[in-house]
Q: What sequence folds into this?
């Protein structure tokens, strides 16, 4: 018996996925991993960009900087 691709459909009959034999999956596995890594990186970059405009994040960041101000002055040399 040779396994073939099996398509998965939703309740309306639209294709939403596929089950691949391992041989075929192995052909695309690395590409899928790379695509997911790029997608994750893009999401992280979007989150960083959004943080720059997030009032709560900015207030928290300012408070953190104030909290460490005294220690920073003790441990770091003044800028020339």
A:
């Amino acid at each position: 018996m040779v396994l073939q691709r099996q398509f998965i459909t939703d309740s309306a009959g639209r294709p939403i996925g596929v089950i691949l034999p391992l041989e075929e999956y192995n052909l695309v596995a690395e590409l899928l991993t790379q695509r997911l890594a790029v997608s994750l990186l893009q999401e992280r970059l979007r989150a960083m960009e959004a943080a720059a405009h997030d009032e709560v994040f900015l207030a928290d960041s300012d408070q953190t900087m104030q909290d460490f101000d005294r220690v920073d002055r003790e441990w770091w040399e003044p800028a020339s």
